[in-house]
Amino acid sequence: MKKLKKEDINQEVFDLYDDYAHNKIERRQFLKKLSLYAVGGITMSSLLSFISPNYVDHILVSKEDTRLDSKYITYNSPRGGGGIKALLSTPQTVTEKLPGIIVVHENRGLNPYIEDVGRRAALEGFISIAPDALTPLGGYPGNDDEGREMQKKRDKNEMLEDFIAAFNYLKNHEKCSGKIGVVGFCFGGWISNMMAVRVPDLGAAVPYYGSQPNAEDASEVNAPLMFHFAELDKRVNAGWPTYEEALKENNKFYEAFIYPEVNHGFHNNTTPRYDEVAASLSWSRTIDFFKDNLT
C-alpha cells in the first residue's frame, strides 16, 4: 500500500477530525463517519493513523538540545488549579534578563508539540513557559484522546487563571525582564485573547486560530495583537468580523493574517493539517512581533 499524502484525503475528513478534536462529536461517531472514507485502497487503520498526531518523528528541538536549559517546574495558581506543572526553557549562553513568552496548549494538555514550541521560542532569545492545565487531574496523560477527555473536566475560566498565574511567575523570575507575551493555539488562542483582556501589562498576544472574546471585552485590551487564521477554519473564523469591528471601534492595535487554503491547526507539524509554508511564515511573523514589542 502506498503511503498516504494530504492530497489523497478528502477535505471532509479534515473537517470531521476538527469536529472530533473539538468535542463536537464523540469518538464512536467519529470512527463511524471516518469509515466512509476508507475506500479505493485506503484502509480504516491507515486513515486513522494518518490523521492522528505523530510526535515521535516531528519534534524540531530535542529535549536534550544543549543550547537550552529546559526543565519542568511547578508554580502556584491560587485562583486556578493550585500547583501547576510547566516546561521552563531558557537559552544556555545568555546572561542578561530576557523577555518572556507563555506558550498555551490546545484542548488536550501539554503534549510534545507544545513543549517543542516552547523550546523553539527559547531558541529565539526568550525565556518561555509552557504550562499544563491538566496538572490538577494528573497532567497530560501521554495521548491526545485522553487529554481531551481530561480537559473537558476543567472549567475554562479556571484554566485561564492558571495561565495568568504563569504570567505572574515569569514577571517575578530572576531571568525575566518583565516584558511578557503569550502565544496560544486553538484553546490556547482563546486563552491568549482573554489574557489580552484580563492582564493590563501584557506585552503582546498572538492567538492562533483561537475563539474571540465578546465584542464588549475589546475595550479592555491593552496589548498589541497578532491574529493567525486558517482560511478553511469556518468554525473559528465566524466570530472574527464582529471582534475585529470592536477592536477598530476601540482604536486597538492589531494585525491579522488569514492563510489561504489551510486548515485549523496548520502550525502543528505533527498532524497532516500542517502546512509548512503557512506555519513557517506565521512563526517568523510571531517572533518578529514579540521582538518588536517585548525587547
Task: Output the helix-strand order.
Answer: HHHEEEHEHHEHEEHHEH
Mean pLDDT: 95
Give the radius of gyration.
Answer: 19 Å
**What is the rounded distance between the termini?**
51 Å
Secondary structure blueprint with pairings:
Layout: H1 11-21, H2 27-34, H3 44-51, E1 68-77, E2 82-91, E3 98-104, H4 112-123, E4 127-131, H5 144-151, H6 156-171, E5 176-185, H7 187-198, E6 204-208, E7 225-230, H8 234-237, H9 240-249, E8 254-259, H10 276-294
Parallel strand pairs: 3-4, 3-5, 5-6, 6-7, 7-8
Antiparallel strand pairs: 1-2, 2-4
Helix pairs in contact: 1-2
What are the main properties of this structure?
295 residues; 8-stranded mixed beta sheet; alpha/beta
Overview of the structural elements:
The protein has 295 residues and is an alpha/beta fold. 37% of the residues lie in helices and 20% in strands. The chain is built from ten helices and eight strands. Strand 3 (98-104), helix 4 (112-123) and strand 4 (127-131) form a beta-alpha-beta unit. The model has no long low-confidence stretch (mean pLDDT 95).
Brief summary of the model shown:
With 295 residues, the protein is an alpha/beta fold.
